[in-house]
């Protein structure tokens, strides 16, 4: 693929927009990511989601004034003006419709977490990407936290047999159950244990959720989502001979910079290091966990 020079953003209702723009556009940043600059952006926003519509104006002005990004009037205009696209709209419900409007341009697209808020929508996005030859990637930045990467690439360590993740899991009415914040822990689990989760069980109350997944090889992975108490992300990585604590905040490089490096690699090569089937399975995992939160029973994926 041709070298990326111009990057367009669709969705200025998330802090990820200025964070990614600074990492790309400021060559003096300690963790500057090379390969392209953000040149155009479409603000977007969801009128029925307070955490979307309340933030669009501020982030739009920040990109315009601090980074000189051209603000355009439609997703199509952003796609036409760039070589690759960051679809960052904070409302996962909007991702399918926005992707439908830009897929025909055939340009590489990163869709911020979650890819969608239903398996049906996620599968439709994946199929549309395939039909239009669009290189596609979607995940949480926590997937690439340096502490997790270092643990998983330690060739001298014993094999992993399970993982317990924890983190804040606020609930938003427009973003069903796990889809708002559970996605961060789900991405960490699937990167570590693989895509072959077979069933899931949820225990929930007003303050906490405990989600347990059983993988094909017998490994068990859990997510503890807190609405009270600890609001930090992290994990316990269980090996055959010990348990390692994964402190996602311990490395000076933020997980946003680490993710953006992977995104830019995909933009430049057209190849992502995430199996597309795994991305869909993460969405199905969260959908099944949401069902189990209601029934209290195991749900097959």
What distance lies between the first and last C-alpha atoms, to the nearest angstrom? Answer: 36 Å
Give a short account of the largest sheet: 7 strands, mixed
Question: Rg from C-alpha positions?
Answer: 19 Å
Helix content: 25-40%
Q: What is the strand arrangement across the widest sheet?
A: 12-11-7-10-9-8-13
**Mean residue pLDDT:** 97
Number of strands: 13
Q: In percent, how much strand structure appears in the residues?
A: 15-25%
- One letter per element, helices H and strands E, the order comes to EHEHHEHEHEHEHEHEEEEEHHE
Would you mind describing this structure in some detail?
- With 301 residues, the chain is an alpha/beta fold.
- 36% of the residues lie in helices and 23% in strands.
- The protein has helices spanning 16-25, 50-53, 56-67, 75-80, 95-102, 119-132, 146-152, 182-193, 255-269, 276-295, and strands at 6-10, 37-42, 70-71, 84-87, 109-112, 136-139, 160-168, 197-204, 208-215, 220-226, 234-239, 243-246, 299-300.
- It has a 7-stranded mixed sheet with strand order 12-11-7-10-9-8-13, with helices on one face.
- Strand 11 and strand 12 (243-246) form a beta hairpin.
- Helix 8 (182-193) packs across helix 10 (276-295).
- The longest helix has 20 residues, at 276-295.
- It is globular and about 50 Å long.
- The mean pLDDT is 97.
Give me a quick take on this structure.
With 301 residues, the chain is an alpha/beta fold.
């Amino acid at each position: 693929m041709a070298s990326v020079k111009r990057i367009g953003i669709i969705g200025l209702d998330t802090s990820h927009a200025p964070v990614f723009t600074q990492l790309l556009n400021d060559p003096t940043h300690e963790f500057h990511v090379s390969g392209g600059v953000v040149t155009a952006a479409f603000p977007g926003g969801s009128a029925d989601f307070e955490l979307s519509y309340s933030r669009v104006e501020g982030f739009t002005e920040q990109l315009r004034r601090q980074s000189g990004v051209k603000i355009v009037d439609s997703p199509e205009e952003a796609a036409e003006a760039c070589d690759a696209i960051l679809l960052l709209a904070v409302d996962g419900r909007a991702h399918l419709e926005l992707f439908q409007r830009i897929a025909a341009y055939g340009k590489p697209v990163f869709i911020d977490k979650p890819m969608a808020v239903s398996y049906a929508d996620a599968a439709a996005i994946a199929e549309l990407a395939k039909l239009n030859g669009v290189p596609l990637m979607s995940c949480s930045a926590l997937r690439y936290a340096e502490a997790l990467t270092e643990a998983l690439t330690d060739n001298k360590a014993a094999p992993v047999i399970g993982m317990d993740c924890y983190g804040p899991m606020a609930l938003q009415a427009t973003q069903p159950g796990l889809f708002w914040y559970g996605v961060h822990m789900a991405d960490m689990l699937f990167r570590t244990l693989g895509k072959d989760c077979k069933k899931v069980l949820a225990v929930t109350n007003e303050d906490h959720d405990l989600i347990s997944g059983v993988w094909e090889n017998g490994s068990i992975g859990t997510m503890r989502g807190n609405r009270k108490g600890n609001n930090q992300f992290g994990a316990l990585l269980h090996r055959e001979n010990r348990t390692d604590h994964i402190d996602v905040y311990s490395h000076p490089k933020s997980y946003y910079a680490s993710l953006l490096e992977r995104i830019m690699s995909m933009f430049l090569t057209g190849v992502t290091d995430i199996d597309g089937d795994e991305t869909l399975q993460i969405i199905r995992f969260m959908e099944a966990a949401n069902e189990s939160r209601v029934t209290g029973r195991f749900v097959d994926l």
